[in-house]
Amino acid sequence: MTEGHRQAVLWSGLSVFLVVVALFTRPLLPVGETRYLSVAWEMWSGGNFLVPHLNGEAYSHKPPLLFWLIHAGWAVFGVGEWWPRLVSPAFALATLFVTACLGRLLWPDGRAGRAAPLVLLASAFWAVTTTLTMFDMMLAFATVITLAGVVRAWRFGRPLDWTLVAFGIAAGILTKGPVMLVHVLPVGLLAPVWGPCLAPEPGNPNSGVARRSAIAWSLRFGAAVGAGLALALVWAIPAGIAGGKAYSDAIFWSQSAGRMLESFAHERSWWWYVAGLVPLLLPLALWPDAWRSLRHAPRAMADGGFRFCLSWFVPTLIGLSFISGKQFHYLLPAMPALALGIAFLLETQAARPDGGAAAGSGRYLGMPGAIVAAIGVAVLFAIPQSVLTKVSGTTLPVANAWGAVIAAAGIAVAAVPLQTMAGRLAALAALSVVTVAAAHAAAMPVLRESFNLEPLAQRLETWESAGRPLAHYGKYHGQFHFLGRLRRPFAIIGDQEVARWVADNPNGLIISYNDRTPPQAAPAASQNYRRKIIGVWDAAAVRADLSIVQRP
Length: 552
Prior knowledge:
It is a single chain. By secondary structure, the chain is mainly alpha-helical. It folds into 3 domains: about 290 residues, no CATH class; about 90 residues, no CATH class; about 100 residues, no CATH class. Helices cover about 60% and strands about 5% of the residues. It has 26 helices and 7 strands. The strands form 2 sheets. The protein has a 5-stranded mixed beta sheet, sandwiched between helices. A two-stranded antiparallel sheet has the order 1-2. Helix 24 links the parallel strand 3 and strand 4. The longest helix is centred in the middle third of the chain and has 30 residues. The chain is globular. The mean pLDDT is about 85.
């Protein structure tokens, strides 16, 4: 087995291990995961596969590709939870492989490409998001596929390469909308900057080094982008017509360009992503070799592959920073660029006569290992219960014994000398994955107590089947419809509608969120949820005291 095959087996095994641990230790997390599965369920149960719906209303926040993939699995395996929870992790694993392939296109010797997936896994943030059902991992895959097509188009200029670019752009738009263009347009337009500096393919000295006409390149790239947009419009135009004017306006404007001008949610300062970069790369950011490798960056600027990574990551970071709505997971599609650049610098560092490390200490992962070990000790002995109660609303302790696993992993990584840069990177990736997996196991009691809404959702399904009307007090995020396989939308009510709704529905039930259960009445059902209690109230009880469903 070659070194490349061994590394592929390693990163594949680490990714699969993470996903298996997540499946067995945590429920679907509200409000994101439960909402996306509820949208998929409502499309499935209603037989409407063109326009996504949530609680009976057209859902314009996301395009339908994730939901379609969930439906494809349900058509084969039947409706269930396990298939949807594997879709996004499968794209996360596929992104590792495609990132390695992209690295091979940028640097034909292959070393940096093989190292890049381990750099990604050495970020606990990537490791955590690998297990979640979300759109950004699918967008990351579409981005890397598209940019691999861009590099191939520069090297070879074949129609098949441009077709890959067009289909990648279409897949990205159908995953998360026009934000896909923020990730791919800059690097494509900057190809005349990085393309002529690419290392040639073995046996083909002209590949990647020819100076192409910037105008001709831009026209071809623009045509591929236009073809991708046209493919996405094959869904968007019929969906806009079927969904009505409000839905059409949302998918063509307010959920794309409108977000760039004024955020509807997650509005944060322009420096949000810059400030979060180092924490997002932990424990990799604790590795001295990673910082030492930065001294090679000035010389690396002459390398086309490194220029490609900068042309990808820097404009994307700037573009996302000027979009007012910000979440760290929006950076996931750009993290392969960061991983490829870091991997190239690390391989440059490893090419030094001392193997990339000063004698002795550089061959140990002392700092990241020691800090992770300290975290494990904190989990084992020192997490204040009051902190957990404040975060989760439950008095259940974490499974502290898992802190010993984290501590042992950190000590092992810090104490064992590793002779090669590749070995140290592999150990750091394994440390990140073991830490995330053990954290899942440690938090399992809290997650199941305060985030598992399935028991309450099943009670709601029983009442729905009995014909009792259901109302939701305040904004509804789809927490219950998939978990309970509910088929009718909730009535959404506020303070002004409560009295009228209970009068019109004397047999109805209202779902509300309370800081504490009011002592003067008992709910028909209740569920701990974060720092609140979800109560399901009989209309008769609410009619007697309207305050039990109103905000404290």
